[in-house]
Amino acid sequence: MNTQLAMKSGLLATAAMTALMLMAPMMGMPEMPIGKMLAEFMNIPVVLGWVMHVMIGVGLAVGYILFFRDKISAPPAVKGMLFGMIPFLMAQLVVMPMMGMGVFTSAAGPMQMKMIMGSLMGHLIYGLVLGLTAEEKKVTAMGS
After folding, report:
1. In the predicted model, is pLDDT for residue 29 greater than 70?
2. Alpha-carbon span 139 to 112, nearest angstrom
3. How many whole angstroms separate alpha carbon 95 and alpha carbon 144?
4. Which of 4, 14, 41, 64 would bridge with 57, disulfide CB 3.0–4.6 Å?
C-alpha cells in the first residue's frame, strides 16, 4: 500500500468534509463541529478532538485503499462516494447513539433532518475527494 497516498488522500478528504461542516450554518444547516463533539464526548481537550477527527479520516482512507478501492468497478468519484456511505451509516447507527443523539440523530428534535442531511453531505464530500485523490497512477510500457 502507498502510505503517502493514503495520508494525502485522507487529509484532503477530511479537510473538505471539515470545511463543509464548519460552513454548514452559512447554508442554513446546524453547526457540526465534529472535533468539539468528540472532545466533549470523550472529556478531552477540543484540540485533541480535532486531532482524532483527522486521524479517523486518514484511517478511513487506509481502509478505502486496502479493502474498497480496487474491489469496485466504477469511476473513482463514484467509488469514493459509495465508500463515504459507510462512515455515514456508522456515524448514524453507532456513534450518534453513543453520544446520546439517538439512531439517525433522533434526539435532535426539529433539527433531525437537517443534521442527517448535513452528515450525509459531509460524508459524501469526504468520499468524493477520497475517491478522486486515492487513485494509483498506472504506469504502462510503451507499445503494449
Report:
1. yes
2. 47
3. 49
4. 14
Residue 114 φ then ψ, to 5°:
-65, -40
Rounded to an integer, what distance in angstroms lies between the CA atom of residue 12 and that of residue 34? 16
pLDDT digits (tens, 9 = 90+) for 78-116: 999 999 999 999 999 999 999 888 999 999 888 899 999
37 alpha carbon, distance to own chain's centre = 15
Q: Which residues contact 18 (CB under 8 A, 6 or more apart)?
A: 34, 53
Indicate the residue type of 82. Answer: L
Nearest to 89 by CA among 60, 38, 123, 113: 123
Q: For residue 75, what pLDDT band results from cuts at 50, 70 and 90?
A: very high
Task: Round to whole Å and give the CA distance between 135 and 36.
Answer: 31
Q: How far apart are CA 99 and CA 9, in angstroms?
A: 28
Q: Give 120's contacts (C-beta < 8 A, 6+ positions apart).
A: 88
How far apart are the C-alpha atoms of 100 and 129, rounded to whole Å? Answer: 30
HSE-CB of 43 using CA atoms within 13 angstroms: 0
The Cα–Cα gap between 132 and 144 comes to 26
